Amino acid sequence: MSMQKRPQMVEAVMFFRERGGICKQMLFPEFEALLDGVVNMPEFADQQLRVAYVLINPRLLIKAAVFFYLDFDEKGAPDRGWNIPLQHLSERAGRGPDLGAGPIRLACRSQCPVSWHQMHLWDPSLAPGQNDLVLLRDAVKRNSLGLLVEDDTAQAVAPERLQMASEDQWYASEKGREATAQLSEKLDQEHRLKTAQLIKQQRLRIASLSQQREEELAKFKLACEEQSRKLLAQIHGLDKSLRQQQALNTDLKAQLAAQAASFQASREEMTEQLRSLEHHGRTESDVLRRQFEGELEAKIASAVIEYKEQIAIRNVELAYRNEQEGQLQQELERLRQERDELAGQSGGQILERLANLGVVFVVYHPGAGHLTIPLQDIARYQDNPMAYAAAKCFVSEEQYRQWLAHFQQPSCEALLPSGERCAIPIDRVDTPSRFTVGDSNCCARHKASSRLRTVG
Questions:
Q1: Distance CA 447, CA 453 (A)
Q2: Distance between CA atoms of 451 and 242, rounded to whole angstroms?
Q3: Contact in structure between 31 and 52 (CB atoms under 8 Å)
Q4: Residues 112, 70: Cα–Cα separation, whole Å
Q5: Rg of the chain (C-alpha set)
Q6: Can you tell me the distance from the alpha carbon of 12 to that of 26, in angstroms, rounded to the nearest whole number?
Q7: Could you report the per-residue pLDDT of 31-53, keeping only the tens digit for each?
Q8: How far apart, in whole angstroms, are the C-alpha atoms of residue 31 and residue 208?
Q9: The model's pTM
Q10: Keywords, A to Z (predicted)?
């Protein structure tokens, strides 16, 4: 007699499409094989997918769910640095909506039991008609994975085993009325629990929408600040070019005026000489006129030749300088290549070897939390850690530095009439994107005075 398999709790993984809906389902052992590199998924190449880990009971009802992101490379292999403890998160998750088997344990971006994994999770949509939890519930009910189901249908009672109660017991007794009252109280309590679960579900949805709005607002604010900085830099560059061109035009006008004055003085001098010689006879004046014209032409020719020689010398110097710049550029490129080769043969190979061994580079920055730095971002992080952390918080580097100073010492930064700092302790703003200079770092008195000055 063969042993019949009894249904048990099952772990499964569901993949969501970009525009909603579930596109693939697999059991958790298959997902572990995917992470170990045994198989690839070319259909998901070079994409970031929204994935859900679910715990299913023998009656095909969901008991826990974890919503997380998973990146795939150009070959369809999952990110090797992915290390989210799904089972641990599902065990420590908070209460979520009731999907048929009581409130589920739900771990998502707005309800994460481990803070440094929050950035790798996402919030399910709870909008009517696009509810991701309903999609999961329906997908599990369809049982596309072929799970063993517990038969919970009640067995029929044979007619001969039915017994008729005596007529004096047809009406409810005192104990029956008490049982009815207890049942009514139990139903009322269940109704209250369902109402509380519905309220909590709506609060979770509101928190998710608020966080999405804050992230979008921070992104738009950062984009506007970057665009403003670019436009200001462009304006400063154009202004500088205009001033240089005006200075060059002024110098050229001064040179032309000096040359015109010199020629005019020479012409006046020669004309005066001609006038003085006209008294000595026309022949002598003709000789002097020819001499004057010859000398004038010689001076003009000499000036033209001198300017041409200066231009030729400048052209030769310019060509030589361009040649030197080209040689220096080639030498700089060669040195840069040698530096990159040396850097790749030393620290880069060590970092890549550590990444292949499963080492994850995690740093902590206030406001951004624990950041997992991919191997390709190590150089950018070393160049400017503050800028890297500010980008993760969707704020500029300057705002992040100002917020960090406020976060480390939350006191009023306004100046008193004596020139000293107010330094009254104030409430700390924990999120960089919510920090506003002149408002978040001032006490109520200076914050109100700054608003009055602004209104006035």
A1: 10
A2: 39
A3: no
A4: 17
A5: 42
A6: 6
A7: 999 999 888 899 999 999 999 99
A8: 27
A9: 0.39
A10: Coiled coil
